[in-house]
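TOPIC: backbone geometry
CONTENTS: sequence, structure tokens:
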Amino acid sequence: MANATTDGQVEAPTEADARSLCSQGDFDGATTVVIQGYGQEVFAFLVSRERAEDRASEMFAEACEDLWRSMPDFQWRCSVRTWFYRLARNAATRYGKRPVNQAARRKNMSQISELVAKVRSRTLVHLRSEIKDELQKLREKLSAEDQALLVLRIDRKLEWGDIAQVMLEDVDEEATGEDLARAAARMRQRFQSLKNRLRTLAEEHGLLERAD
């Protein structure tokens, strides 16, 4: 059952269940709940960002390990969904700088490694069954970071404060205050520029005329 937050809003079941398990000290259980609840959408986000399934799979595995390691110290200043996306984005950034040797990783998280593999498998089956339309192909002309912003706002419908949390570079803790507000404002401006660019591309390819 979902719980009410301090501001009166109702938490999604995954958020409430994860928070409850953390309060009981069951951080492995909380990690499992989060991966079960949000794993497929986070992995799909990485696939859309990278357009390479093997790389995205490695990044997702690393993000899940980072989630597992961070749960005992997570302060709930943002949703755990937002935190998972932020860890995924930072895993992708790190991977781009130095590919990860996964054989040497995750020695202590065997209890969720099977779940991670199942989430990846289910997500890839789903993504391969989708037919990409022409507007999606236009998206793929954008940079990985610009595609990430579009996915978070349009496909995942995250609020700007949550998007700012995901897109920040520092992963030590959830950002708060003025820095977060400034980052959110930058994300909104960047998003508007992206929409204008996509519209121009759509016009150049005659997609808007066809839609009319």
The chain has one domain: 13-211. The first helix runs from residue 13 to 23. The chain is about 70% helix and 0% strand.
